[in-house]
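Need tokens for this chain, all 98 residues.
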Amino acid sequence: MIYTINDSMATQSYQKLQVQKLSDGHPFEVISITLEKGTVFPEHTSPKNAQLILLEGDIEFHIHGIGHPLKRQQYLSFPKDVPHWVKANENSKFLIIR
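Here are the structure tokens for all 98 residues:
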């Protein structure tokens, strides 16, 4: 087995919305997302139940018409096929695991 180390999350910029797939879905998909302060990740759905882990920053996660504030190192689970959107209150970086 070959192991690889990748530091692309550390260099991912805070320029509006940046999305980077870190793994391809076997057995799960990991996506790194950065949002520049004031940027909105527009409404969308997830094809699978998902976990959001906020690594840096301050965001508001909106689902079912309710905003859920998240601070650095907080975690949120959300269901598949439910529309949601995210706003960055400061430069923020989070992982989506699904």
